Amino acid sequence: MGMNESNVLKVGIVGAGFIVKKSHIPGLAATSKCYIAGLHDINEVAAREARKFYLDQMEQGDNPLLSKAKNGCNIHDSLEELVKSVDIVDIATPPAYHLEAVSLALNHGKHVICEKPLARNWQELLQYPEIMEKAAGGDWKFQLHTQGIWHPIVKAGRDLIADGVVGEIQQIRTLHQGADPKHTVKLASLWDKHHSGGGALMDIGPHAYAGMWYWLDAGWEPVAVETQLLEATVPVREIAGKPGTKVTVEDDAHVTITWKNKDGREIRGDLEASWNKKDWHEGKVGSRLAPDLYYEITGTKGILTFPNVMLSFRKPFGIAAGLKFKGKKGEKHAYKFKLPKKGIEDLNFFDEFIDVIKGERKGRNDFKFAEEMLLVFGAAYLSSKSGKKVTLKEYKKYAENFKETPALIDDLFSSF
């Protein structure tokens, strides 16, 4: 159900790139709980194209807020001007510019949505003490944008786990893959460690990490990380139209995360983030039709798998077997669900955040989650450099020795 129009919140989007059109705008065009009241991008043409795309999407979906959006969705020349005019600031710029926008939004009392990752590195957060202080207060609402966990089929899987289908969780494996070596990401900023903080782990690793976090309840925390593989499997490639470019960040990362609960029990979480289509879960090259997002939860009773979450999301409306269970005694079961229309995941992301702001539900992907992810990924890079398991406490101590984020990143990649 939509909210009363007088309670509809205004969203301002910072950035007008690929992810805005792929995920943010489709979700905002579908919801009736908020609408885009402003856009800001250093490229005004891109901002105007995003505005048109948004209004077209609203019209196609017969959104009741279309008239309000047509009259209120403005293009702003300055970031501060945009922030002042809205209730929620949705930040979708490259990671190097996230915290500056988050800080500005905080200073004006605005809630924040931020594209993953929150920053290039946990150390960068230390340069913004006002953000850390505000996040600890609890009144400010924050949500990190990731994909996967907002889909109804994924929630159904979590419900099955809560009902005891797999028994006590023993291990979790999550994988997100972007493309194979011949069709990989060519956007230059993603291959610049000073721009993004790293490679595939920082770019698509957050989706896999969010899935791992989602299967566990709040009583579990990551305590240590050991990197199994962090490499450029295609060391020279075409990037941003320039053939023969030497790669300076990873296109494939495999890390093992140790999770511990309040009783001291530990479980293993294996995460892969890859731009090169290395399907360890099936031992074969994945589909080029869509990214792969794979989950595997092993418990005392058996294994629950999501063979390719991203591909199943894009199937036409109908019935699909989204989950498969294999028991310890060899019994098998496929759980079939009626798939909702395309875009439900993006819609759920924004609808849930509005409900969090209104105090109607507990949030997911909050600031603690976003900060924790930066610590885990930072520890993964340090583990790769040192060749040993690194605790999050050890990584914090290491990172605090650096005053500048670029220097920290250079040190982490010094042996890459």
Tell me the β content: 25-35%
Q: What's the end-to-end separation, in Å? A: 51 Å
Helix content: 25-40%
Class of the largest domain in CATH?
Alpha Beta
CATH fold description of the largest domain: Dihydrodipicolinate Reductase, domain 2
Description of the structure:
The chain has 416 residues and is an alpha/beta fold. It folds into two domains: 9-146 and 347-366, NAD(P)-binding Rossmann-like Domain (Rossmann fold, 3-Layer(aba) Sandwich); 149-340, Dihydrodipicolinate Reductase, domain 2 (2-Layer Sandwich), CATH 3.30.360.10. Helices cover 36% and strands 26% of the residues. The chain is built from 16 helices and 17 strands. The strands form three sheets. The chain has a nine-stranded mixed sheet. A six-stranded parallel sheet has the order 3-2-1-4-5-6, sandwiched between helices. Helix 1 (18-30) packs parallel to helix 2 (44-60) and helix 14 packs across helix 15. The N and C termini lie far apart (51 Å). Residues 279-290 and 312-319 have low confidence and may be disordered.
